[in-house]
Design a protein that fits this description.
With 179 residues, this protein is an alpha+beta fold. The chain has one domain. It contains six helices and six strands; from the N terminus they run αααββββββααα. It has helices at 6-17, 27-30, 38-46, 122-142, 151-157, 159-165, and strands spanning 55-57, 60-69, 72-79, 86-92, 101-102, 106-110. A six-stranded antiparallel beta sheet has the order 1-2-3-4-6-5. Helix 5 packs across helix 6 (159-165). The chain starts with 5 loop residues before the first helix and ends in a 14-residue tail after the last helix.
């Protein structure tokens, strides 16, 4: 039996579809970049204090992080080393709050194809809230939430991107969409 990694699987999907996948920011080396783009700098500021691969809550860890696109930050989380990764989108808070994890300025949505009605495991909700609380501290200090759209705004402005978001871990930027 051949074991295929998620990264190689996604690479094959992107190649088969003729689409290049956006590369995640290498947070381990992000601080040493001489000339980082504004998007990468934004991502470093909002994720300050989080390291790829290091646990942030119980055995949950950040697998990948993508600079803002279509008004949201895309994170990939996993529990332990053998777990199926979960895509989590970070957006500006809206009223009423509908996300499973929220703070004063942010909402975090699991982009799992459940359409907001699938019951999420409690440990995932707890991990997302712990992550949201960490991101809130960074977002509040730097007024970072103002750059993000709400989930509803993203659905209206980028419907094709948001439809794909439910089934792709590595986001493909929408045509003509800036962070």
């Amino acid at each position: 039996m051949t074991v295929q990694t998620r990264r190689s699987f996604l690479g094959h999907l992107g190649a088969a579809a003729g689409v290049g996948l956006l590369a995640p920011l290498d947070l381990a080396h992000a601080g040493s970049m001489v000339s980082a783009s504004a998007d990468e700098a934004y991502l470093r500021r909002i994720l300050r204090g989080l390291d790829v691969g290091a646990p942030f809550f119980a055995d949950w860890h950040l697998v990948e992080a993508y600079p803002p696109m279509a008004g949201g930050v895309v994170l990939v989380l996993a529990q332990g080393t053998e777990a199926t990764p979960v895509r989590v989108d970070v957006v500006r808070r809206a009223e009423p709050v509908r996300a499973p994890a929220a703070t004063d300025h942010l909402e975090l949505y699991a982009m799992d194809g459940g359409g907001g009605v699938r019951v999420m495991p409690e440990d995932l909700v707890e991990a997302m809230q712990a992550l949201a609380d960490h991101l809130e501290d960074n977002a509040a200090q730097g007024h970072l939430a103002t750059r993000l759209l709400t989930h509803g705004e993203r659905l209206r402005r980028y419907p094709a991107f948001m439809e794909r978001a439910a089934c792709e871990l590595a986001p493909v930027p929408p045509e003509g969409a800036a962070g």
